[in-house]
Every structure is written in C-alpha cells, then in structure tokens.
Amino acid sequence: MFPTELMKAAGRGDLERVKANLGDAGKKEKNGETALMKAAREGRSSCILPLEREIGMRSEGGWTALMFAAKEGHSDCISLLDGEIGMQNKYGCTALIWAARNGNADCARLLLSEAGRSTKERDSFPPGTTALMLAAHYNHPEIVQLLLPYEQGMKDSEDHTAKWYANNSSEKGGFTRVRQLLESEGTERLPPPDPELPRLQRRINELTTENDSLKKDLSSSKNAHEETKKELSQLSQEVSSLKQQLQKANEEAEKNHELNETLNKRAQEAERSLTEAREEVSSLKTQLSKTIEDLKKELADQKAQNLALENENTLLKNGSLIPAAIQGDLNTLRRRLDQAGQKDSSGMTALMHAASRGQTEVVRLLRPLEARLQDGRGWTALMHAVGGGHEECVGLLLLERDLKDGEGRTAAEHAVDEKMRRVLVHQPTLPRLPDSLSGYHLTAVLGEGSFGAVYTAHGNGQNVAVKVVSLGGRSDKERELLRREAKILPSLDHPNIIRCIRGEENDLDSTYVLVMDLCCGDLRDETKERRRARCPYTDQEVWKTIREVAAALTYLHEKRHVHRDLKPANILVALDGRCVLGDFGFAKVLEDSSRMSTYVGTGLYMAPERHKEGEYDKSVDVWALGVMGYEMCTGRLPFLRVTDIVERDLPAIEERSRELADLISQMLSKDPENHLTRRKAFNEVEKHLR
C-alpha cells in the first residue's frame, strides 16, 4: 500500500499529525515498513512513544524500527525502542550489528545486550559474521574496544575471526589502532549485559534526581521556617519596645492627656499586629507540618517503586513469561508456563499484556491459566483487550465480563465501540449446575450443538470447560444411549484425549454435566489462521498431528469405542501444544460384530461406506484422520461434495514426502478391500508411535 498520513507525519517529526492519525497505526507500506520505522530512521524520537503499539513489527526484510535507529546513529531513540532488543532481520542482523558496521558507538554502547549474536545467511559477508568483525573490517576502533570482551574469538562460517577481518579489509585508511586492539584476541568472552539493566538504571537515576529535588524543597521549607522564627523574634522585640513607650506615656499622662490618647491607639495597633503575627506563625507551622508529611509519603512511595522495580528486574534476569507474551514468542511461553499468574510492578499478568496488544494466539494459550485475574487498578485481561480495540481477544475473554475494576466498572462500561459494547452487555442464559458441582461458576458460552452446549467456568482455583449434554425431549432409549455415551469420557485416561475432571447427572433439568480441562484452541481455528497467514504446515507438523491423533484412536479402539465424528473442530490443542481428542457426542461402543450402520457425523469427513448407508467399522475413524491429514498437507479438503467421496478418485498430494503422501492415500483408500488398506496404513502410523 501507499504511505499513510501517519507514516508521512512520523517521517517529518510532526507530532500533532501523528496523534491525529493514530487510527492508521499498525499499517505497512508495500515493503513492510511502518510509521514507527520511519520515525526511528529519521531520528524523530518525540514520535516514538505515541507509536509504541507498532514496537515489534517487522518489514518484508525483517527490519525493525530499532535497527533503523541504530544504523542511522540516532542514539536518543534506542532506549525508547528497547522492546525490540534481540530481534534479527532475515539475514540474522541485529541492531548492534548495524551500529557496529556504520561506526555508531553511542548506539552500540546502548545495545551491548545483543553482543554474541551473528548473521544466519550471506549478505555481503558470510554467515556467522558478528558486530565485532564488521567494526574491525570498517576500521571503527572505539567499537572494537567496546565489543572485544564480549565477542573475541568468535568465528564466522569460513573460520575467520575479527583479527582476520582487520588484517584483510579492503577499506582505506590506517588500521593501526584496530590491529593493536585485536593483536592478542583471546577466546574467553564475557556474557552480554541484561537488556533490561540500562532501562532500570535510567529509571533509578530519574528517581534519584527526583528524590534530590524533594530534599532541596524540604531544605527550602526549613529555611522558610527559620525566617519566620526571625520575624517572630523581631516582632517580639517591637512589642517590648512599644510596651516601654506605653509605660512612659502613662507616666506622662497627667502632663499631656492628648499624648496619652495617641499612645493608647498605638498600643492597640501593636496588639493587633501581634495577634496577626501569631496567627500567621500558626498558619506557617501548619503548612510546614503538612509539607513535611507529604514529603515523607512521597519518599515512602518512591521506596516502594524502587522495590517493585528491583523485583521486576529479578524477573527479567531470570527470563520472564511477561516479555515473551509481549513479543508473541509462543515457544518461550510454553517453556515458561510455570510462571503463570506472576505480575509486573503494575499488577499486570502476561495475559493482560497480550490482550492489550491483540496477541490472539498468546491469549488463547494463557486463557486457561490466567483468566479472571486483576491488576493493580482491578482491570482484567478483557478490559485491556477492550481498551485496545482487539475484537478477537475480546471474544476469547468473555468469561471475564462479570468482573469489575477498582472503580466498580465492568468491561462493557470501558467499551467505546457500540458493536463491542453490545457483545459485552448481552448476557446469555446459563444453566444451573447440580449441587455437587456448585463450586464451579459458569462464565460464558464456548459453543453449542444439537446435543448440548460447552461453557467456560471458574472454580477450585482454576478455569475449566463444562459440557452440558441435554437428555430432555427424547425417548427412553435415546436418553439411555446419550447417558451411556456421556459416561464414555470419564472412563478414558490418555494424554491425547481430553481429561474429564468430573461428571454428574442433573435430574432437575435432565442433563448430564462434564467438567473438563479448558484447552487453548482447536485444529480448525489453527488451520484457518495458517491459511490467512499463508503459513502451511510442515511435513513434521503433519506427522506429529497424525501420530498424536492416531495414539488417541488406538487407545479408543482398544476400549472398543469408535469416535465417528473425527474432524479438526474436535481436535483440541493443549497448553503444551499436544493434540487432544475431544467431543464424544457421536462415539459408540462396538457391538460384538464390530460393525455399525447408524448415520451420524460430519459429511465431508465421512468414509464412502457411511454415505452408502451400509455397515462400517472402526476404520471410518482412520478415513477421517486421512481427510484431516490431506487438508493439512494441501490446505483444502480432498472432496468438496458428498457425491465426490463415492464417485471421484482422490486428487494427488504434491510437494510432500512420498512416505507421508502414500500413508494418507492408503488412509483414504476406496478399494473393495479399503478396510484392510486403511488398517495397514494405521498400523504404519502405530509403528511411528513406538
């Protein structure tokens, strides 16, 4: 797209126009550049804070705003963009590498936490090139001296060190100083500084400066108090003098009555002055006492802030869940889930940070662990999502809409957009749980179907999913069948099958209630998101999904159950990334003949023999797994109409490994011996499980 008004204003440093066009924040040019990148490249530091929501975004080449600032030498922009420290472009270049290459020492000094990183692909220099090597090549001795303790002895992919770059540079000029510094280049390196330390040190310096200012104000107040005491002493002396004059006047009263009257008036004026002086002194004492108390409170608040910053620094040093949530780093998040529930100095959790930035996948992952927590203001993650205008995140966090902040306001009262307010205000009718499950509180609807509905709930210190299976309006035989199938899930125990915490029948409204783990999403939503982002599954990811679902089916079939409605929407994603088989609404216990004829399920995932209304066995689950594998490999279903399933040949799978393509083709076999062919394919998957 063409540059927006926001991008133009940011490039010019026009702060007023930037604020007026913040609605365009997050948009990119054709080359992927944002308004924040243009401000950073031109050194427009005043425009960076209003555009902070664009921090972490990349251009087509993987460039960040921090890299542009470092390349152009705008050191005053570095600290404002410290959220991008550690990010690399598509060649592996960091902001520090660009600062070193261009000789921007002030920038390099602020980016030392990136020391030790190297390029990943060739771009004028071989992979493995470090910032020290480029500083040596381009003859920047100050930066060489700065980086030497952290990168000495490192080698690129061609086994060259920084010393080699200095001795073999094609650049003009004298390299004497650089070569002297690298003459005795060692191999022992210091670890790079923590990226948060400079920011925290700056904050501490700011607080120290503010503290010194308050001390000066206190000293000034004390001086004012001393001046008041001096004035009071002078007034006392004046009163004493007036009393002496009054005494003399009384002695002379008999001689001169008029003089006596005059002196009486002067005495009265003196008394009034003394009273006013006393009142003024009393007022000054009260003001001084209040000022001292206010200063004590401010100093106590500063100490508390310093302690909070120290605690936050400790979290950051140890590698925190919160920064990973801010950056949308799902891999780090899954490794740090043991830190779920921790809060920063403002009381915000990782889920709240992700919701405020519209990190949908992070919200989906953290929702089961951190939903319904509140920060220092009483805000929930839903309120932060509403404040940021992130509709997808709002939809995922509706289980928090009954909570109120510190001012007694709900998320709906925070909403500005009318459409979002209607979503938040609308309260669905939630069923009543049996008394045995009264410890759980239903909070929102997750999904509905012909057999019942699934809700989010909170209880016993955790967020869960509650499925309510409706038994009403059915014959006794149907009710018994549904009741029996509702009891299947609590009897299963497998890492790739959704865990049922409790199951109870509710006689009051003829329902069966299942309390289950709350997962972070399903394969259908994940597949849609990948199509939208044009990020296809790798062979390894397809194999992983097939193996994990096959493990669940093997266990299910050994228990003599057939799922009969296997599809992406019924494959849930656990917190650690495992595929978990859920929704047993159509599951059926195999009879002795191991064959069935009931027509239930989702048409485009059903095997041919089911569409012919003939008998079928557990191999229909293998067919459905093959359809899902085909969809993950190609991005589309193998058959788009039910008639095609019976009549048309399977379209070939292209650009995939032969082993994977052959396996899926066997799963989707329509030969007369299709049951044996599918079982053979399933046995092949089971070998991979071992």
TrEMBL record:
Gene Ontology MF terms: ATP binding; protein kinase activity
Superkingdom field: Eukaryota
Biased composition (Low complexity): 233-248
Binding site residues for ATP: 467
Chain intervals with Basic and acidic residues compositional bias: 212-232, 249-272
Region (Disordered) residue spans: 207-272
PROSITE patterns: PROTEIN_KINASE_ATP (PS00107), PROTEIN_KINASE_DOM (PS50011)
InterPro entries listed in its UniProt record: Ankyrin_rpt, Ankyrin_rpt-contain_sf, Kinase-like_dom_sf, Prot_kinase_dom, Protein_kinase_ATP_BS
Keywords: ATP-binding, Kinase, Nucleotide-binding, Transferase
Domain Protein kinase: 440-690
PANTHER family membership: ANKYRIN REPEAT AND SOCS BOX CONTAINING 3 (PTHR24184:SF11), SI:CH211-189E2.2 (PTHR24184)
Protein name per the record: Kinase, NEK
